[in-house]
Write a structure and sequence with these properties.
Blueprint (H helix, E strand, L loop, with lengths): L2 H11 L1 E4 L5 H18 L9 E3 L9 H8 L2 H11 L3 E11 L21 H4 L18 E7 L11 E2 L23 E2 L7 E5 L4 E2 L9 E10 L11 H13 L2 H6 L6 H18 L3 H5 L1
Antiparallel strand pairs: 1-7, 2-3, 3-9, 4-7, 4-9, 5-6, 5-8
Length: 287
């Protein structure tokens, strides 16, 4: 698929899948590096649904792999296609899901939308008109989820509701752990990356396989919004220093640094407004 194909699917469905985003060698490297880390994390909270390493760029042994993964131009190119040149890191984490009892096979983890969504703000609000699907608009945030094992009924597939980024679908709290009539299970292989819209309704499924289920999550948001990860990390200082030296504005924006982005945005607005006004007919101008 080309980036145009991915963008068409993303606008329509609220997600798109990049197949073989990570090579088998890179998948193996990540799993081998994370297995000993998560074997220490799980016993600390044995009843938790998952354990996390965050921020990944602050982890001594995982930071080199994390840096390479975060700065992959394929992800950043597509992020700019859907958000414009405003992409900032919110959070970068590795999540591990422990092996659970077989009775949980197929059980919904929890339906939710991700950070910065507005659909939940209006859920249950009494509108004075019948809501219809809203036009697609660029997201305020996106999740880039890379899976390190096959995603099937044993490991627990990712479930999504296509189109829910546009149609205000709301799942009541009492139904958040139930299957949904429009749900789709994504067929994913190790190394596949799912790029989601923050308004997309989705859920995990419990892992009953014989291995830890992992994903890497790069959550990006529009520059200027709050971010969960600290940017005061030595690995980030090194990345930013190099970006300043090479005038790499995209990488600087990834860590919230671009003093001219608003002025450039306002200049684009002014040009757009002037173009619109110039196209008004003489009759319209007279009115």
């Amino acid at each position: 698929m080309t980036l145009d194909d991915h963008l068409e699917a993303y606008k329509r469905d609220g997600f798109t899948v990049f197949r073989e985003y990570l090579s088998s060698d890179r998948v193996r490297a990540w799993r081998e590096a994370m297995d000993p880390e998560f074997s220490l994390l799980f016993p600390k909270k044995p009843d938790a649904p998952r354990a996390k390493i965050v921020p990944l760029l602050g982890h001594q042994s995982l930071a080199p792999l994390a840096r390479e993964h975060l700065l992959d131009s394929r992800m950043l190119d597509f992020a700019e296609r859907v958000m414009g040149p405003f992409v900032q890191l919110d959070s970068f984490e590795a999540s591990g899901f422990p092996i659970r009892e077989h009775a949980l096979k197929g059980r919904v983890d929890r339906w939710h939308r991700d950070a910065f969504n507005v659909s939940q703000t209006w859920a249950g609000y009494s509108f004075e008109y019948k809501q219809t699907p809203r036009p697609y608009t660029p997201p305020l945030a996106c999740n880039c989820l890379t899976y390190l094992q096959p995603m099937n009924e044993e490991t627990g597939p990712l479930r999504v509701i296509p189109g829910s980024h546009l149609d205000y679908t709301h799942i009541p709290r009492e139904n958040e752990f139930e299957p949904h009539p429009r749900e789709v299970f994504l067929d994913l292989e190790p190394g596949d990356m799912v790029f989601t819209h923050h308004e997309l309704l989705h859920s995990g499924t419990w892992n009953i396989s014989n291995q830890i289920r992992y994903f890497l999550s790069i959550y990006v948001c529009r520059i200027g919004l709050p971010h969960r990860d600290s940017f005061n990390l030595s690995e980030i200082h090194d990345i930013v220093t190099h970006a300043r030296r090479t005038n790499d504005l995209r990488t600087l924006r990834l860590f919230g640094e671009d003093p001219d982005f608003l002025q450039r945005d306002e200049a684009a607005w002014a040009s757009w407004v002037a173009e619109d006004r110039g196209q008004i007919s003489s009759e319209g101008k007279a009115a």
